[in-house]
Amino acid sequence: MSNSNFLSDIQTLRDRARQHIEAGAVTAGYSADRDTVLKLLNESLATEIICVLRYRRHHFMAKGIHSPSVADEFLVHSNEEQGHADRIAERIVQLGGEPNFSPEGLTTRSHAEYIEAGSLTDMIKENLVAERIAIDSYSEIIRYLGDKDPTSRRMFEEILAVEEEHADELADLLTGLSESDVKH
Ligand SMILES: [Fe+2]
Ligand SMILES: [Fe+2]
């Protein structure tokens, strides 16, 4: 007997957990479309990897134009994007999928682009554009997931908050640069 109208009774929960035990964390109560969620997760993984690479490239190239503080910021972001990629890959495995790390088609799977950019200002702009793309696509994914997969949704919400910080920092760097241009 259940004490509540909306919770499954304990026996039902126990019986369900014993079925399809090989599915690990994915239970019969998982109400999202798993294939769609895995596709979204793999696209997000590609996005994060592209962001790791772009920030890495910019980190080393910005060093060359004597901008140590911006170069340092790019490295910090690159490492944080790597952390996001790892979390997403882990979630894919939890859901019984396989993280796609293949270089083949990486730029096509990714929402954000890999753009080398020449000047320091262009690098900051390209990174800001990429962050804004990530912010938009993660917001959409969060809305799509709704209550269907709260664990993936929470992960995306946490990642989204960091992407918003990144965008904010880049916008500040851009303002700082254009102000120093004015003083010249
Ligand atoms: Fe990220
Ligand atoms: Fe970011």
From TrEMBL:
Keywords in alphabetical order: Iron, Iron storage, Metal-binding
Taxonomy, superkingdom: Bacteria
GO cellular component: cytosol
Cited Pfam families: Ferritin (PF00210)
Domain Ferritin-like diiron: 31-181
Family annotation (Gene3D superfamilies): 1.20.1260.10
Entry keyword Repeat: no
InterPro entries with a match to the protein in the record: Bacterioferritin, Dps-like, Ferritin-like, Ferritin-like_diiron, Ferritin-like_SF, Ferritin_DPS_dom
GO biological process, one term: intracellular iron ion homeostasis
Chain residues that bind Fe cation: 48, 84, 131, 163, 166
MF-aspect GO terms: ferric iron binding; ferroxidase activity; heme binding
Family per record: Belongs to the bacterioferritin family.
Protein name: Bacterioferritin
Organism from which the protein derives: Noviherbaspirillum cavernae
High-level lineage: Bacteria, Pseudomonadati, Pseudomonadota, Betaproteobacteria, Burkholderiales
